[in-house]
């Protein structure tokens, strides 16, 4: 490829040496926020990345990045579904003009960082039944009506089709109200980045209280 459409900083942390997917909190070192974002901006200026952004950034970490940024991050890709609405972060990003993209919009059922709780939620299932839709479709339509982009993943042909069939019907104001009243809890805590002696001593510190 000569360029990518969108290039993201995956996580607001670095790993020591050659560490990639297998690591613990002691392998984590602080992100060079200024240097990394300057390099991202250079990729954008050179045309290698049409847009640049971040992922898993809290309001506080975005604020730290914005101090240095000449180019605003186009996107912050974060966990978002009806059980983790990201209200505070969405308000912050909306004020700054940063688009939110929702990962694990179905709760990440079946993946190590995810939970079956979203698709198994009784309120979501009851709304789905009343509309003749699936719980997954309700979650994706909810994300769509909240004005974010969303990244459902499926390796299954039928479910891929099902997930795309959300644009010719809508959730009512009452449905949205019911979904917006669901108890909130971040699912993907990313505990692997946390260690009592590390850069992030708790999940609370890692996510700057956005739990
Ligand atoms: N930036 C980050 O840090 C970050 C973190 C996590 C994820 N992501 C990205 O976000 C995307 C999706 O996230 P995710 O995989 O965590 O979560 P997800 O899309 O919420 O959930 C995926 C799971 O849901 C199942 N599924 C898909 N459609 C379904 C349906 N209609 N009914 C029932 N089950 C369904 C899939 O199984 P089948 O394949 O069997 O259908 C898979 O097990 C991925 O592209 C991932 O790379 C980014």
Automatic annotation (TrEMBL):
Question: Domain named NADP-dependent oxidoreductase: which ranges?
Answer: 2-180
Q: Which InterPro entries match?
A: AKR, Aldo/ket_reductase_CS, NAD(P)_OxRdtase_dom_sf, NADP_OxRdtase_dom
The record's Pfam families line, in alphabetical order, gives: Aldo_ket_red
Superkingdom of origin organism: Eukaryota
Gene Ontology molecular-function annotations:
oxidoreductase activity
Q: What is this protein called?
A: NADP-dependent oxidoreductase domain-containing protein
């Amino acid at each position: 490829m000569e360029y990518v459409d969108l290039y993201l900083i995956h996580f607001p942390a670095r790993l020591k040496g050659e560490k990639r997917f297998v690591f613990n909190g002691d392998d984590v070192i602080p992100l060079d926020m200024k240097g990394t974002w300057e390099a991202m901006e250079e990729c954008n200026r050179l045309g290698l990345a049409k847009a640049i952004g971040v992922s898993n950034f809290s309001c506080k970490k975005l604020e730290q990045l914005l101090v240095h940024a000449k180019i605003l991050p186009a996107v912050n890709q974060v966990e978002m579904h009806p059980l983790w609405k990201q209200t505070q972060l969405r308000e912050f990003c909306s004020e700054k003009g940063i688009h939110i993209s929702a990962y694990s919009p179905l709760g990440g059922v079946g993946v190590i960082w995810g939970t079956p709780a979203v698709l198994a939620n009784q309120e979501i299932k009851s709304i789905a039944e009343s509309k003749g839709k699936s719980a997954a479709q309700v979650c994706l339509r909810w994300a769509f009506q909240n004005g974010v982009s969303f990244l459902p993943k499926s390796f299954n042909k039928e479910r891929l089709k099902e997930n795309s069939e959300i644009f010719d019907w809508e959730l009512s104001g009452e449905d949205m109200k019911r979904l917006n009243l669901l108890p909130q809890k971040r699912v993907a805590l990313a505990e692997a980045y946390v260690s009592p002696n590390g850069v992030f001593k708790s999940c609370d510190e890692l996510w700057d209280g956005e739990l």
